[in-house]
Design goal:
Blueprint: H1 19-33, H2 38-43, H3 52-94, H4 119-140, H5 146-194
Helix pairs in contact: 1-3, 3-4
């Protein structure tokens, strides 16, 4: 049985294709490009190619090896553009320039008479810096998966929503208790107003009309 050439592993534990494996993968890619089927390549008995799945993996590795230089060149070009973009944005953050009114007049501080900075330009520059940082992280593979970020944001919103609902429920129950107390006091006042109280004491007078 053919034995697949051993491939070393990098520090991350991923297999690193040796020169023999890279040459075999390139040969398989050429054979497939010539019209051979996956099964025909398997039947050739190449080292390590035991089934059509091995052919598919070899094809993918060969294509990745071809694309790798172009990807690295594109990444380097994009990083250089991001560096220039971020540097210009940082300049605007530090010195956004003076604020100008709709009439074209420089707006001055009424107390010092100094020109006020254009905070709109500064805010836009800050957003540009943030976008550049995120794009650079994506290019370098350092950004957290968007699905995980979405789940984290959703969890935070759910937690805040639960806290708000609990606060509203407490406030509602306190309001009901206060209303019950007010209603009980009102009923007591009504009952006291309708109660005539004990009968007045009648004094019996004698014949001389004296008690």
């Amino acid at each position: 049985m053919p034995i697949e050439p051993a491939s070393p592993r990098n520090r991350s534990g991923q297999l690193v294709a040796t020169e023999d494996v890279a040459e075999r993968d390139a040969l398989i890619l050429r054979l497939l490009a010539q019209g051979l089927s996956y099964q025909q390549v398997v039947e050739m008995g190449l080292p390590g190619i035991k089934n059509r799945g091995c052919v598919s993996k070899a094809r993918r590795r060969a294509l990745d090896a071809i694309r790798a230089p172009a990807v690295a060149e594109y990444r380097a070009e994009m990083l250089a553009k991001l560096d220039a973009l971020e540097a210009g944005a940082w300049d605007d953050v530090r010195n956004p320039g003076p604020r100008v009114s709709v009439t074209g007049k420089v707006v001055e501080d009424p107390q010092t008479g100094e020109p006020l900075p254009d905070n709109a330009v500064r805010d836009q520059a800050r957003n540009t810096v943030l976008k550049a940082v995120r794009t650079r992280m994506d290019l370098l593979g350092l950004a957290a998966p968007r699905k995980s970020m979405s789940l984290q944001v959703t969890a935070e919103l759910d937690s805040e929503n639960e806290t708000l609902q609990a606060q509203l429920a407490d406030a509602y129950h306190e309001s009901l208790q206060e209303k019950d107390r007010e209603l009980a006091e009102l009923r007591a006042q009504l009952a006291a107003a309708q109660d005539p109280g004990p009968p007045a004491l009648t004094l019996l007078a004698g014949k001389d009309r004296q008690p």
